[in-house]
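Re: that backbone. Tokens:
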């Protein structure tokens, strides 16, 4: 059951949140909630990184030290995501006419790259440990991993209800959810080692951790690259958008030069030339089209509406 006092503290209002694939997370309640969620998540995970790394060093557990390194990358990722989140809320200026919304895309790509570097580090350390296995205190490892399950699981829960509204929030959720599963695996290995004394299980688990992180990161990396290249955001079909515009108003006869690209991880822009039978109806047509586009999460449309004569003139020149 959700804790209403926690929601009040985090700045959200229970029952007022509506998740949309391309919704705007920058409303006041969601903005305050996510800002505090990032702050609390960073503080908890930074504390846990220190505890986990020290425990891994003392106990000689590569799984714990590797997971601590990965958790440190998550702290950096959360910090970058929070920084981008704050930049995205800054007002436009003469030099940045769209504001700094694009920073959210850059950060999501940086976070995906950070995770891939962490994967390489974990695999390297695990292979070294497989070549020269060392004794591990399984019971102590299990206790530390148990604490990781609580902290990572709680942090993932902080971002759960907003994970589909922003790529950086989704990345933070995926990082924490993956870490929770990883901690479950470390806990299981610690228990098994304490009973069997089979120490190679520790580096083997390190490799499994790397594989889990890689696959959980792949979609984030692919979508971040697409957005950084101004590709059409996932979940938006340009063909379907074109058909929806044509069906929005009977006075529309044609549409061409459609371009769809992200302004940020939450806002999408569109430009298009629309041909209408009667140019005097352009204002009504524009309003109808904007209403349709808003259903696809396209919040910044620029529509050039022309009559049939002007359209033929342009086509003959091109």
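Recovered sequence:
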């Amino acid at each position: 059951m959700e804790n209403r006092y926690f929601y009040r503290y985090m700045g959200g209002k229970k029952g007022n949140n509506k998740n949309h694939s391309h919704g705007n997370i920058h409303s006041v309640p969601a903005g305050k909630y996510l800002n505090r969620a990032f702050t609390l998540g960073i503080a908890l995970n930074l504390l846990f990184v220190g505890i986990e790394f020290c425990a891994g060093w003392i106990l000689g557990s590569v799984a714990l030290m590797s997971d601590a390194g990965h958790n440190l990358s998550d702290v950096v990722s959360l910090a970058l995501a929070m920084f981008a989140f704050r930049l995205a809320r800054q007002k436009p200026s003469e030099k940045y006419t769209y504001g700094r919304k694009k920073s959210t895309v850059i950060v999501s790509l940086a976070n995906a790259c950070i995770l891939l570097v962490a994967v390489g580090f974990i695999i390297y350390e695990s292979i070294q440990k497989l070549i020269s296995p060392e004794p591990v205190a399984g019971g102590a490892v299990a206790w530390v991993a148990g604490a990781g399950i609580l902290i990572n699981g709680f942090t993932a829960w902080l971002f759960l209800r907003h994970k589909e509204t922003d790529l950086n929030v989704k990345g933070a959720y995926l990082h924490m959810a993956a870490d929770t599963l990883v901690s479950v695996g470390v806990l299981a290995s610690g228990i098994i080692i304490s009973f069997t004394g089979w120490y190679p299980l520790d580096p083997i688990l390190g490799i499994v951790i790397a594989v889990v992180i890689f696959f959980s990161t792949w979609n984030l990396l692919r979508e971040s690259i697409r957005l950084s290249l101004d590709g059409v955001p996932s979940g938006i079909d340009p063909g379907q958008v074109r058909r929806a515009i044509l069906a929005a108003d009977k006075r529309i006869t044609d549409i061409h030069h459609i371009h769809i690209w992200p302004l940020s991880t939450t806002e999408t822009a569109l430009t298009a030339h629309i041909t209408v039978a009667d140019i005097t109806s352009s204002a009504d047509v524009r309003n109808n089209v904007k209403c349709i586009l808003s259903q696809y999460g396209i919040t910044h449309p620029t529509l050039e509406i022309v009559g049939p004569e002007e359209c033929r003139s342009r086509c003959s020149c091109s």
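DSSP finds ten helices and three strands in the chain. The two ends are 62 Å apart (CA to CA).
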